[in-house]
Amino acid sequence: MTSDASGRLPEAFLTPGGSSFMDFLAGHAPDLLPGRRSLGQGDLSSEVPHGTTIVAATFPGGVIMAGDRRATMGNIIAQRDIEKVFPADEYSAVAFAGSAGFGIEMVRLFQVELEHYEKLEGATLSLDGKANRLSALIRGNLPMAMQGLTVVPLFAGYDEDIKGGRIFSYDPTGGRYEETHFYSVGSGSLFARGALKKLYREDLSESDCATVAIQSLIDAADDDSATGGPDMLRRIFPVVGVVTADGYRRLPEDEVAALVDAAWAQRHERPDGPAAGSLT
Amino acid sequence: MSVPFYVSPEQLMRDRADFARKGIAKGRSAIALQYADGILFVAENRSPALHKVAEIYDRMAFAAVGRYNEFENLRIAGVRLADMRGYSYDRRDVTGRALANAYAQTLGAIFSSGGEKPLEVEILVAEIGAGVADDQIYRLTYDGSIADVRGYAVMGGAADTVAEYIGEHYTEGISLAGALRLAVDALGHDGTEVRELTPDQLEVAVLDRTRTQVRKFKRISEESLAGILSESSPAVDEKAADSDAVSDEGSSPDSTSDAGDSGESSAGDAPVAPPADDAPVAPPEDPDDDRPL
Asked: What is its subcellular localisation (chain B) (predicted)?
């Protein structure tokens, strides 16, 4: 597949071209691109696993992205410990809601796309440039989105120019929208966004921001059957990624466990979570 | 119609080899050196933008000397091959050996095909493993010959002289600072006159297995390079005396020619071995001769 019969590098590899891995695949091995496959007819949305809720929120000097661990297939829980939040490169994170298979493939392709550009050009793309590449990737998936295999990513990263975190959301046609402060996608996103509205403040510390993200996921799981809450029996907790000037870091399991345990203990007192004042 | 002159295949290959070697000999040298935590690359390169050393994949790097457009093309092909393999299989399935083989086949095919000009490049493919013993350095020449090198490898203009200097001072398990100082000193000992290279004349990168990221390749900036180099002083006096002694002793035609062709002006025809009739087409790949090729 990667070299011809003589073992020599194929001509396509030695032909000057752009710095995009997706464009290279389109010319040399189009079958590896997710959007180039033909599918059967009809709505396939209940036949394959779907990932559910993702939240992201900025704090001074960075951005947090968190996702629950559930994948559903119709009314079935397909997976309880799926991971939906990934590093896109050293200074950005990407997560997806929607068709899990395509979502994971899209994330892998996006990661290679950014790394490939970086290696060929000797420089990283701007955060907006990365966000636009992700748009192009989603647009390629449009035929499948029309059959219910939608993938809706959320992209966040540290922007060197403004020294802070930024969040980008997408629609299934590849539309790209920058969000301020916080955002959520997936089936439980309406509930998560409601919780974020009440809990979010601009001056949160990194760990408070992580707690807010976790609280909003618990609220989403409270009202959305497709979103998994913290699994206290199996100790399966949300994946929390942090991007700051020091790069992407996934919060270690025990740190997340401590934050979840604190939030959980508080909910024993008040099951709806922290209360916001009516006027402050 | 004129009858073409008969040229023996040996002569044809030798001419092509000489052509490639002359092109490479014009370039400044590049060094790859195993140290305790990885592999260090040092190249004399005055351009901050046109790199001789570059990342290929997580644990793999590429270094080259010769014609920039030719090795840049090979580098891009290598990145494409690695990314393609890593994407269609897994990141762990991208190996230096596979890449070195693909390069060897490509260089060999171009060298022996009558229609194409031989590439005037020499390249290194290096891959770090879990420990020093698992590190791999492959050295590839313009004709597709491939050698598996241990310890250190030198390519470019005065490769023999530089390699000789490293050979005298290299110890296994050397620290990064020690390896850097040794490589910079060695690059300065590429002729009769010892030069002291400054950070802005150097391109330095490492494959560092202690890095926590998946991608182990890292460039060392001019500032941190200056910092590391300022902690050790160049071993000028002793080395200068050393090299004097060597050239004094060396009465064999070989070493005199080495010393003689170090200067910039004569670099064009410098380290090319005199084409004796029985000279091999490629440099010998003799594992017993512990000098790297």
From this structure: Cytoplasm
Tens digit of each residue's pLDDT (9 = 90 or more) over A115-125: 999 999 999 99
The DSSP line for A226-262 is: TS---BTTTTB--EEEEEETTEEEEPPHHHHHHHHHH
The Cα–Cα gap between A263 and A118 comes to 40
| A57/A200 Cα distance (integer angstroms) | 8
Given a cut of 60, whether residue B271 has pLDDT beyond it is no
Strands B38-44 vs B202-208: parallel, antiparallel or unpaired: antiparallel
CA distance linking residue B39 with residue B134, whole number of Å: 11
Has residue A252 been placed in a domain? yes
C-alpha to C-alpha distance for A160 and A123, rounded to whole angstroms: 13
Q: Which two tokens stand for residue B146?
A: 């491939």
The answer to whether B121 and B73 have CB atoms below 8 angstroms apart is no
Longest Cα–Cα distance of chain B, Å, equals: 71
Helices (H), chain B: 9-25, 68-88, 96-112, 159-169, 176-188, 222-230, 236-249, 253-260
pLDDT at B235: 66
Between A236 and B277, where is the model more confident?
A236
Question: CA B201, CA A173: separation in Å to the nearest integer?
Answer: 49
- Interface confidence (ipTM) of the complex: 0.90
* Within a domain: A28: no
Q: Do B105 and A6 touch (CB under 8 A)?
A: yes
Q: Establish if A227 belongs to a structural domain.
A: yes
pLDDT digits (tens, 9 = 90+) for B36-58: 999 999 999 988 889 999 999 99
- Give a yes or no: residue A26 inside a domain: no
* Model pLDDT for residues B5-32, shown as the tens digit of each residue: 888 888 888 999 999 988 888 888 999 9
Count the domains in chain A. Answer: 1
Q: Of A2, A52, A72, A173, which residue is the catalytic one?
A: A52
Q: Do B55 and A119 touch (CB under 8 A)?
A: yes
8-state DSSP, A275? P
Domains of chain B: 9-232 (3.60.20.10)
Would you call B92 helix, strand, or coil by DSSP?
helix
Tokens of B220: 């060392």
Which CATH number fits the domain that encloses residue A69?
A: 3.60.20.10
Q: What SS3 state is found at A278? A: coil
Mutate to test the interface with A, among B52, B57, B76, B113 (most CBs of A within 10 A): B76
Q: Taking an 8 Å Cβ-Cβ cutoff, which residues of chain A contact chain B?
A: 1-3, 6-9, 13-14, 16, 21, 24-25, 28-29, 32, 90, 108-109, 112, 115-116, 119-120, 122
A244 catalytic? Reply is no
Helix or strand or coil: residue B56? strand
Structure tokens at B157: 């203009």
The whole domain housing A167 covers 43-269
